[in-house]
Amino acid sequence: MATYLGIESSCDETAAAVVKDGRVLLASRLISQTDLHQQFGGVVPEVAARSHVNAINQLVEEVLQEAKVSPKDLGGIACTQGPGLIGTLLVGLSCAKALAWSWDLPLVTVDHLMAHVCANFINTELEPPFIALLVSGGHTQIIHFENYREGKILGQTLDDAAGEAYDKVARLLGLGYPGGPIVDRMAKTGNPLSFKFPEGQVDGLDFSFSGLKTAVLRTVQKLTPPLPQADLAAAFQDAVVRVLVKKTIAAQEKTNAKCIVLAGGVAANSELRSRMKEQSPVPVYFPSPSLCTDNAAMVAAAAHFCGQPAAFNIGVYSRQR
Ligand code: KG4
Ligand code: ZN
């Protein structure tokens, strides 16, 4: 049982949070760099790292104050070790090392993907075993968790991640960055039946989204402007959500897991949340939208359930391991 200060800096959100016993959220703050990167249509790593440096100390101070917690109340300082951008991860890790050293507290590192899954423990009584659908900007995986510490990957994307497909299609449709939330909003006013886009034809529990992205591109190329953005968004989203729901439920049936959890930025998608709930034969968990996208509360929660006590010479990693 412990209260952790969590720090997240794997990509373009600088975040700090305090969570007690992995379940009770005491404070969570975040500074998003979306505006900063919008002009480039994607995250520029060096720009992101510099922005983390400017924001992190202030956020740590704010969450400790808001949580009414002083260093002596903490069980450790947690940060994301990877996967993510090396330069941005190093900002969070260096900050966590410095705080742990100066306050004489354990340094605990967490995996970003595990942290996304652990967001589901906040304010719930969720316990393994469960099937997790992890859908973010960089990953799309179905994972079977029989314990808190590690899961078995049952299926994953062979090409683009679901979030990446959202971002690329948003760009094709002339919408902003990041595309997921905009396509989600726009799809609500469109007709999903106005275009027929294919689900990726991949066996088993794996996914493929690059064919779908190409199908949207070909359709857009044949249309004369102005594009029916809402209909295209709705038809694209329908194809993505259909396959995500179908394969996640197939994984639940195969493993007999007692619930399904959604994790990662795309888990904020309104259509995915509602259709998974409608169609799943078992209870479905998903974090509040702000805990689906990158945040530090999930890092502090993950520290409790599956954090690794770390030495001060530890480094970061860019790819899943
Ligand atoms: O988990 P996340 O914040 O960062 C990564 O670890 O990648 O996920 C970001 C991804 C982006 O691709 C973004 O477009 C997508 O999540 N996303 C959404 C929604 N909100 C964020 N995709 C679909 N619908 C949403 N509402
Ligand atoms: Zn993430």
Structural description of this entry:
By secondary structure, this protein is of the alpha/beta class. The chain folds into 2 domains: 3-120 and 292-309, Nucleotidyltransferase, domain 5 (2-Layer Sandwich), CATH 3.30.420.40; 127-286, ATPase, nucleotide binding domain (Nucleotidyltransferase, domain 5, 2-Layer Sandwich). It is 43% helix and 19% strand. It is built from 11 helices and 11 strands. It has helices at residues 34-38, 45-67, 86-103, 112-118, 162-172, 179-187, 210-222, 229-255, 270-279, 289-292, 297-306; strands at residues 3-8, 13-20, 24-32, 76-82, 107-111, 130-135, 140-145, 151-156, 260-263, 284-285, 308-309. A 6-stranded mixed sheet has the order 3-2-1-4-5-11, with helices on both faces. A 5-stranded mixed sheet has the order 8-7-6-9-10, sandwiched between helices. Strand 1 (3-8) and strand 2 (13-20) form a beta hairpin. Helix 5 (162-172) runs parallel beside helix 7. It is globular and about 60 Å long. The protein starts with a strand and ends in a 12-residue tail after the last strand. The structure holds 5'-O-[(R)-(carboxyoxy)(hydroxy)phosphoryl]adenosine and zinc ion (ZN).
The backbone outline, from C-alpha atoms, is globular
Largest sheet: 6 strands, mixed
Rg of Cα set: 20 Å
Helix content: 40-55%
- What sequence of helices (H) and strands (E) makes up the elements? EEEHHEHEHEEEHHHHEHEHHE
Can you tell me the number of structural domains? 2
Bound molecules: 5'-O-[(R)-(carboxyoxy)(hydroxy)phosphoryl]adenosine, zinc ion
Total strands: 11
CATH class of the largest domain: Alpha Beta
CATH architecture of the largest domain: 2-Layer Sandwich
